[in-house]
Design brief:
Helix content: 25-40%
CATH topology of the largest domain: Rossmann fold
Number of strands: 11
Strand content: 5-15%
Radius of gyration: 25 Å
CATH class of the largest domain: Alpha Beta
Distance between the termini: 20 Å
CATH architecture of the largest domain: 3-Layer(aba) Sandwich
Largest sheet: 6 strands, parallel
CATH superfamily of the largest domain: Crotonobetainyl-coa:carnitine coa-transferase, domain 1
Amino acid sequence: MASHAGPLAGLKILEFAAIGPAPFCAMLLADAGAEIIRIDRKGAEPRPKHQIQYRGRRSVALDLKNPAGAEAALKLIARADALIEGFRPGVMERLGLGPDIALARNPRLVYGRMTGWGQSGPYAHAAGHDINYLAVTGALHAIGPKARPAIPANLVADYGGGAMYLAFGILAGLLNAHHTGEGQVVDAAMADGTVHLMAQMWGNFAGGVWKDERESNYTDGGAHFYNVYECADGKFIALGAIEPQFYALMLKMAGVTDAEFDAQWDRAHWDALREKLASVIKRKTRAEWSALMEGTDACFAPVLSLSEVAQHPHHRARNNFTLRDGISQPTPAPKFSKTPGAIQSGIALPGEHNENALADWGFAPSEIADLKSCGAL
């Protein structure tokens, strides 16, 4: 069995193949050193090598509708520290792999469940995607120009409110199990996580600081000092000069002397100041503004295209990208001083590790042979 690098080395996790935030969560944990076996559906199609969220773990392909396949999964569950599944509520129960049965086999197991709406509630069994979870949580209403909400790719609910919260929940559950000897179920819902991500916004809204209207607040495009501006070459820069000293420096470096800009926090002036600052920024190219402001306390950054990001000096200095299997991809984050993580392996073919992964997790050769003979493996 190959050794794993990272602070989670020695942790054993069983992942039931899914899409979206569940495999991204597994990638996070694998990058940090956890040993993960992914249970793929028998006969599943290979994943393209660009789907890097599936990197870093081995694959065993089981027919979970075959009683022998389900029993093999339970034997793996008995040897795991944690489990990740991303099916709709009730699917794992119908397979005979639900939390009650799993925890009876392994009382210390942390059973991580990833759904959009959660295991309960009126929407629990409804299909949905990131945009739907954003819509019901208020996040979609809060993002974009006044005319209509903007769609922030699928970063907020899928990966922020979903994968990150599932990873946090699993690690918190493991810490508790270490102290108490008892596992538990982690019910991670993308809608729940997104609501929680907006904690500061909810507080500001309750306190009358946040207006319930897009482009009316200082971090949603309403303020001139926290905005995106087009340059002379059609490219964009981002300014985020909130604090007074940073704001003053930004104005100085932009050559702005108009006294109207002194009223930084007067919302009544924001629309006019955005227009004035936009005309100033339009006089230079993005490269010219970068040469002037990049790396200063003006809270400036060029808006980079995806094709530009990996070559930016900051990312190069921190080794934030690497080339593996012909694909440029992010390296593990965060960075650890003593136990750095690593991309443990590429993307496994479904069933690629049927024999060696099962053997490493305690299956005898005869058990593996029986699974093959009955068509479960």
